[in-house]
Amino acid sequence: MAHVDVNPDFWRGRNVLVTGHTGFKGSWLSLWLYAMKARVSGFALDPPTSPSLFERAHVADIVDDARGDVRDIEALSHALAKSRPDVVFHLAAQSVLRESYVDPIGTVSTNVMGTLNVLEAVRQFNLKAKAERSGDGVRSLVIVTSDKCYENREWVWGYRENEAMGGHDPYSTSKGCAELLMTSYNRSFAEPAAASARAGNVIGGGDWAKDRIVPDAVRAFAIGRALEVRRPRAIRPWQHVLEPLSGYLLLAEALSGKGVAVAEGWNFGPGPESEQPVESLVDTLAAIWGDGAQWLHTGGDELHEATFLKLDSSKARTTLGWRPRLGFRDALKLTADWYKADLERPASSMQEFTLGQIRDYCRAV
After folding, report:
1. What is the dotted CATH code of the domain comprising 8-302+309-363?
2. Which residues form a coiled coil (predicted)?
3. Which of 48, 62, 146, 226 has its CA 20 to 30 A from that of 25?
4. Whether pLDDT at 301 is above 60
C-alpha cells in the first residue's frame, strides 16, 4: 500500500479525548491535534515530572484540561460525558519500566485497571448515547500500550502482532494484560471498536522522566557531566515521538471508517536502521550535542531489562499505509534541537517551537 498521510480534514472540528494528556506522548499528541483544529479534551493526573513538556509547551492553554485518575471510573465517566468525544486516545499509564520494581501495585493497577475503566466507561457512554439518541458515541478508541507487551524471547527478528503476550517485570506484564483486556472487550461487546498501538523506545524533546536514556543524557550534558550508561549493548527500536503518534492518528481514522475490521493490535516501530544499541544512541547524541558531551559505562544492576527487542511493523505499513519518516540520526537531531531551544529560548516560545517541529515533520518526505 502507498504511504498515507494523517488527514487534517478528518480531525478538523472533531471532539477528541486524550487520557494522559499531561504526559510526554500525550502532550505531543494534544499539540498535534490542536494544530489540526480538533477540539481536544484531556483527563490525567498532574504532569509526572517538573519540568515537563506539558508545562514548557503550555498545553493547558490549548486543551480542556481535566485532572483525575483513570482508576476512578466515576471521574473518567464524567470527563467522557462532558467532552462527548468521537475519538478517545488512552495514554494514561505508569510508563517507566524500572519504576514498576519500586511500585508494582501502582503500576499494575494504573495500567490494567485503568485500561479496563476506559473500556467500560466508553462502552457505557456509547450505550447511553444510543439509548438517548444523542449521537454516535465514541467511534474510535486507541489503547496505547508498549512493545514490552510481548513475551520477549530475545529473538533477532521483530515481534509481530500475533506473538504471545507476556513480560518478565511488572511493567511488561501490565501491558500484556491491558492488551488481553482490550481483546476480550472486542470479542464480548459490539462496541466500542478498540485497537491497541505498540511503539518502540520513543524519544523527543520535552521528556524529563527518570531512568530513560535520552532525558538522563540531556541532564548530564547540560551541566557538563558524563552520562552513566548501564547496558550500552542493549538493542532497542529507537524512534522520534512523532513517528508512532502518526500511526495512532492513522489508526483512529481507520477505526472510524472500518470499525471491527481493524480493531486489533498494531505495531508502530522504526525501520531496521534505527534498531541500534544504546552505545550508538549515546555516541550519536553526544556528537550532535557537542560541548564535549561524553558518556561512560558503569555496569548493570540486579534489575532485569531485555537485551534485544525489535518490532515488525509490516501490518501497519501494508494495511494502514503508515511508515516512519525519520532516520536514526534525524530523530536524535530533532530531539537535541528541542532541548537546546528549551535551554536558550524564553519559555513563552516553546509551544510555537514544538508546533513548528510538528509542521516540519508533516512536510517531511
Report:
1. 3.40.50.720
2. none
3. 226
4. no
